[in-house]
Every structure is written in structure tokens, then in C-alpha cells.
Amino acid sequence: MKVKIALGQIEPGTLKKEDNFKKMKNYIEQVSNQNVNLIIFPELSLTGYNCGDAFFEVSEKIPGPTVNKFEDIAKNNDIYIIWGMPEKGIDGVLYNDAVLVGPEGYIGKWRKHTLPGHATDKVGPGAFPDRRYFRAGSKSPIFKTKIGNIGMMVCYDIYFPEISRLLTLKGADILVGISGSPAFEKNIFEPLVKARAMENAIWYAYCNLGGKEGDTEYWGGSTIIGPGDKETKVPGEPIICKADYDKEDLVIGTIDYERTAEFRPYFPVLRDIRLDFYEELYKSAEDIT
Cα torsion at 17, 134, 69, 208 (round to 10°)? Predict the structure, then answer.
């Protein structure tokens, strides 16, 4: 199956939900006549990342008002949409979500599993406010759709290879990672995305924020990476498309799931998994204090 994917690397306005929604809607309209099957937007693209205590005000139930609006757009344009937003859960508990809707309506959400709480002098204290405002997600679903089985992750989740491996073993055809990664992380983050595709021999679509939000500069660099090249035997290839660095951009690429089946016999990382290492890993992780 071939799937055409767009990456909407937007620059968000802090707390400007309506403006950000209109920007995403405009991107969808731009690709709607190009037979795009799926469009992906970055982490917290609906609200921006620098909301502070106002996250409690701009968060929504999922499904809720914004999900309903994206549902209508998805149905009218026969397209799947993934975007990031803060979710208001039970008793006002917040989650940092990736949300998926399609022509059939609301499909599901991924609550960010791993929450950074560290900061850096390069961008000032509180650069990663997740632990202050959000609760970590605990469910790791695969979403079955007409364009394949989709696994989603949010930002820091990508740093942990266990998450990508779990979603791959659960049957994902493509992994989707969305992030709000600032400029100083580029040299750390960019190779990790390729590594996640390589170590699972799977398609990976990554969409990051671009431009500037307050004092935070985002490096962009959204990309679609293949499971590997059968001819060259090189994993983590090909690079289907690549967005500009540091600014807004919209790129489109077509993937082919047949490449996964063709390449995995040449790079059998899933066959070669050592289950005994997982048990040792679990025991060792328990000892970390």
C-alpha cells in the first residue's frame, strides 16, 4: 500500500488556539487537492508550548470542540489528521496528546508517556514544563486505519527506543513522532529519529515545530524516513522528504509499505531480538533511584 503524507511544520502562537487552528486548516486545504492521505502537525501545535499555568484554561476534553472541528475537516477532505494539544482529563488532570481523526471520525489519542522536567541555561528555566503541568500516559495503542496501522509518540517519547520497539511489535506499519524540540536539541534529536526507523526497519514520519515562540526557537527539520533500501542494504533509508530548518514549512512524500517487507529480510532486527535482555533490562531499571 502506498500512502501520501504531508508534514505541516507550523510556528505556533502561544495561547492563540483559533489562529493556530486556522493555520492548520489552511495547510490541509493546500494539500487536499494533491491526494494526500495523512497530514501531521507538531506537538502542542494547537496552543503553543509556552502556555504556563494557562494550560489549564486552554486544554480540552478529547473528544471535544477542537476534535469535532478536525473531524468535520477530515470527513470533508477524505484525509487523516494528527496534531498535538493539551487534554483535560478527569478531575482536571492534564495530558500532552497526539490526536488522530480520519474520514470515519475520531480514532484515538496518545498521551505522552515520558515527561521531561529538565531545563537548560540556553533557553532559560522551565524550557520543558511537562512535569509541572501534565501526567504521563500509560497506554500504548496501535490505531488501525484504512491507510495502515499507526503508532504515535510525542517528543521525549522518541528518546526511548523501547516505545518505538513496542509499537512496532504490536503491528505498526508506520511510526509517527510529533515534537516541540528547541534549536539546541537539533544535533541530539535529529539522529534519534533516523535511529528509531533503522532499529525497527519501519517507516517513520516526524513533525517538529518550526520558527519561534517567544524566546524559544524550534529547529524544524520534519522528515519521513524509510525502513531501509533493499538495493544498498542501508537501513534508515530513503529520506522521502525533509522540511526546512528553523522555520515554517510544508512538505509531502509518498511511502510504500511493500518496502518494509522487502527490506526486513536483509536487516532482520526484529528476528534477532534477545528476550533475555529484556528481563535483565527490567531488573536493572528497577534498581535506578
Answer: 70
Crossing angle for the helix pair 186-200 and 161-169, to the nearest 10 degrees: 30
Closest CA to 144 of 114, 112, 113, 104: 104
At the top level of CATH, the class of 2-286 is alpha beta
Residue 126 CA to residue 118 CA, distance in Å, equals: 8
Of residues 45, 67, 48, 59, the one with CA closest to residue 93: 59
- The domain ranges of the chain are 2-286
CA-CA distance, 42 to 48, in Å (whole number)? 10
SS (H, E, C) 118-168: CCECCCECCCCCHHHHECCCCCCCCEEECCEEEEEEEHHHHHCHHHHHHHH
Q: How far apart are the first and last CA of the chain?
A: 46
68-104 pLDDT tens trace: 999 999 999 999 999 999 999 999 999 999 999 999 9
Residue 195: alpha-carbon gap to chain centroid? 15
